[in-house]
# Entry
Amino acid sequence: MAIDCLHIVGNVAWVSGVITTPAVSGVLAITRVVDNGNTANDPLDQMSFTFTDFDFDDGTPSCTDAPDLPLFDMADGQVVVR
# Structure
């Protein structure tokens, strides 16, 4: 994905851009992530699915719109929002 927008509010980030893989090249996409800390005592970090133009009736929102994309706990990995 060629990223064209990054929007950060506290420990939450939205990233969007244009998909560059041949099968869906040119399609707009957006994802939301939440950094809930980095110790074993902190809640798990969270991430949404990546949504595209196909998921919205009136086009993919800009990441600066900060859409309330549904989040899922990440079993592995670490999100870092700075």
Notes: The mean pLDDT is 91. Strands lie at 2-9, 12-18, 28-34, 46-47, 51-52, 72-73. The first strand starts at residue 2 and ends at 9. The radius of gyration is 13 Å.
